[in-house]
Amino acid sequence: MPNIASAKKRLRQAERRAARNRAAKSALRTKIKKARHALEGGNLDAARAALAAAIPAIDKTASRGVIHRRTAARYKSRLMRRLAAGTVRPTST
After folding, report:
1. Can you give the pTM of this predicted structure?
2. C-alpha dist (Å) from residue 52 to 7, 59, 83
């Protein structure tokens, strides 16, 4: 336990920020999970809607410093790859 007043304040700030980051990361994981389940379900409209909610959430948490920007890019890339794999592309023969 800190004895100096400024150290006590920094501890309080750190606890508040950690709680805020934990909540933001939890909400992000929930949106990513919903998007993954929608993609696995096969309904492309629902998958696109879930991705439309997940992508901005990923960008926002990265811009706030909760997750690293490359982690955000990796999450988005994996989701978009799954969407691309789920769409049927006509073959040119």
Report:
1. 0.82
2. 42, 12, 12
- Domain count along the chain: 1
pLDDT of residue 69: 97
DSSP string, the chain: ---SHHHHHHHHHHHHHHHHHHHHHHHHHHHHHHHHHHHHHT-HHHHHHHHHHHHHHHHHHHHTTSS-HHHHHHHHHHHHHHHHHHSPPPP--
Task: Evaluate whether residue 4 is within a structural domain.
Answer: no
34 within a domain of the structure (yes/no): yes
The dihedrals phi and psi of 28, each to the nearest 5 degrees, come to -65, -45
pLDDT digits (tens, 9 = 90+) for 54-87: 999 999 999 999 999 999 999 999 999 999 987 6
51 within domain boundaries: yes
Residue 15, domain member (yes or no) = no
